[in-house]
């Protein structure tokens, strides 16, 4: 790995747009996106199909150019950095010659990047594909091919790894091994960005989650930040409707039987008031899951960067 200036963002995206088609059929796949990612961050990019995740990743990797705005990776144009080996992009599909063996694939990439051949065995072990080396790529499963592409990405010892749906096609065991390898790279100080539709992976492995919908970033923050923007549900037993109503006075809360939906930041105060009621018991504060928050955010038809209440232009 090369040394990285800690004062310069690894990725700087400013006002980027990208459209496809023309006239009445114009589609704005990425809509005025601004984003900074710093060295050592592990960032998950979430969004429904058509949200613009892959289009944004392609531009950051230098595979396509913005229609408006600017992108810098390590302070340079993305295409120039991709050629230097500092950035490794692992696409969701394609990128491998199906007729070559896995070993030949890795050796050719190593030769192209002027890397010693001994590196091939090292990255094969890290990616968990040592047992596939003699097999032709076309005879490998979809999950195995994803691991091959991950091994390819490691050959140049990159500072930044970008992965688009990296565990698609992998079984549970292969996903565990893959994320163990990613964790080792993160511990070594690499910056990692991954797009995924597995919310559990984002929650477990990302320090920061960026949610996209309709081509725009609608939320950006930690899992805790994201969950903290949504209402909680409080349940309690042996409390009369009158006492419940009094406890909710002055709070942003809605009562439905023994269930109270309360705005973020008010749940602790509501719990204190309820517990002062004689005989009150079995109080539970239910926090929404990441899946619930994600579905609520991406279902909003007028999604806007401020809708989630989380800093969408964070420089974490």
From TrEMBL:
It is a peripheral membrane protein. PROSITE patterns: ABC_TRANSPORTER_1, ABC_TRANSPORTER_2. It is found in: Cell membrane. SUPFAM superfamilies: P-loop containing nucleoside triphosphate hydrolases (SSF52540). Its main location: membrane. This is ABC transporter ATP-binding protein. Keywords: Antibiotic resistance, ATP-binding, Nucleotide-binding, Transport. It comes from Corynebacterium antarcticum. It comes from the Bacteria.
